[in-house]
Amino acid sequence: MFALAATAAGFACAAPPGPAGGRPGTSVPAGDAALSRQAGPPGKPASGAPGPAFEYAYIPPASRDLKDIYRRVREADLWRQLPEVQEIDGMFALPRRLRFVTAECGEPGAFYRPEQAEVVLCYETLRALYAQGQAHQQALGLGKDHPLRYLRANVRFMVLHETGHALVDLLDLPVTGRQEDAVDQLAAILMLRFGGLAESPGEVIDDLRLVANWMLTRSTGAYDLDAFADEHALGEQRFFNLQCLIYGTDPDDFAGMIEAGDLTAARAAGCPRESRQTSRAWVRLLLPHLAPEREAYADEAVRYLERGG
């Protein structure tokens, strides 16, 4: 895909209040015809979708040190390299167009802006992820391609997490628990269901483990009242929740996770049921919103629900 010059930086998932709902320092124009790329992979006309197809854009940064990242992202056409995003493009009858943009944000982040119906991925986040991938590579003695894989795995999850926020908003989906936890679950399910054609299930699982690593490395372990009251679960909790979803897909194959300390035996015992319930819940929520020409998915979903998962 692309290589990035890297420096260490942090990551924040949700956008704090600011002008137009974005981050301080964020500038994402409502439209940029020169940079927007209409939805769908080649051969899939946007006009064929019953609702608005996705729209993609790459916003030039003002900071000189981000211009090379912008150039590489645009040349690689990053949005078209995310298999799950491409697969669900046109899948749902959305009431308005959902736009995916890369932009300079002033700090690392990825977030959904409901006013503009935009999922924003920050260039600073790409730099931070590549740096963490390099640290992970050096710590474990991994191959030279590891930083890029680390970056790509986490970008996929982050974008799907924010897409989950977008679907909840645009489709008015009910979420009775913490929405951040719910869209973490959806991101994992989408990666497991719609991984790239060249990927094996094991490779997708490995990517999810890289996501879990990022969650854990972002945690300081020093929590105060603000951390406990935050809308996001603690980093350690997000780590174990994701590990539970992974384990629940195949307890026999992933039995080693318990011995490795990636999951406690007590939590693991309920993970198959937890994974099944999570998947069935999201299928029930999204099934009524499938676009008419996605009948094959609708039929498959109905059969899945009828057989009890």
From TrEMBL:
<protein>
    <recommendedName>
        <fullName>Metallopeptidase</fullName>
    </recommendedName>
</protein>
<dbReference type="InterPro" id="IPR025644">
    <property type="entry name" value="DUF4344"/>
</dbReference>
<feature type="compositionally biased region" description="Low complexity">
    <location>
        <begin position="39"/>
        <end position="50"/>
    </location>
</feature>
<dbReference type="Pfam" id="PF14247">
    <property type="entry name" value="DUF4344"/>
</dbReference>
<feature type="region of interest" description="Disordered">
    <location>
        <begin position="15"/>
        <end position="50"/>
    </location>
</feature>
